[in-house]
Write a structure and sequence with these properties.
The protein is α+β, with helices and mostly antiparallel strands. The chain has one domain. Helix content is about 25%, strand content about 15%. The protein has 5 helices and 7 strands. The strands form 3 sheets. The chain has a 3-stranded antiparallel sheet with strand order 3-4-5.
């Protein structure tokens, strides 16, 4: 269940330099607040194309002083609102991002159904059995 962050039903963006996922979508997601919802994410099994280097590029960062992971498909930060055990910062950043992608909650993934120009799994290689998109794209 996502939480609606819009003010009075009207979405708004801040005037800060960066935009985070919460602002783009007007939502937060339960796994941003509860580490138990990402504890079972198997990072090796979820790594795209078994490319461990992709996974190793994901690190815990900070946005507005809040722990966050960068979602390159949205080009925005996904904030993490739970306490992360010391020494496991990158692990939890990776798990939150993979869960976000597997659930199809990345804003960049939301755009794929309409804008993908070539056949590809909607949820990438992070989720087996993902619907295909881009098979019928036509220029407008």
């Amino acid at each position: 269940m996502a939480e609606d962050l819009s003010a009075g039903g009207v979405p708004h963006l801040s005037v800060k330099a960066g935009i985070d996922t919460e602002e783009l979508t007007g939502r937060t997601f339960p796994y941003q607040f509860d580490p138990s919802l990402v504890d079972d994410v198997d990072l090796i099994a979820a790594t795209p194309g078994e490319d461990i280097n992709w996974l190793e590029d994901i690190h815990l960062m900070y946005e507005d002083g809040v722990p966050a992971v960068f979602d390159r498909y949205t080009n925005a930060f996904l904030k993490i609102h739970f306490e992360i055990p010391p020494g496991r910062e990158d692990e939890y950043a990776r798990k939150v991002l993979i869960k976000h992608l597997q659930e199809g909650n990345s804003y960049g993934i939301w755009l794929k159904r309409r804008h993908a120009k070539f056949p590809q799994p909607e949820l990438g290689s992070w989720r087996a059995g993902s619907d295909m998109v881009g098979e019928t794209w036509q220029p407008s």
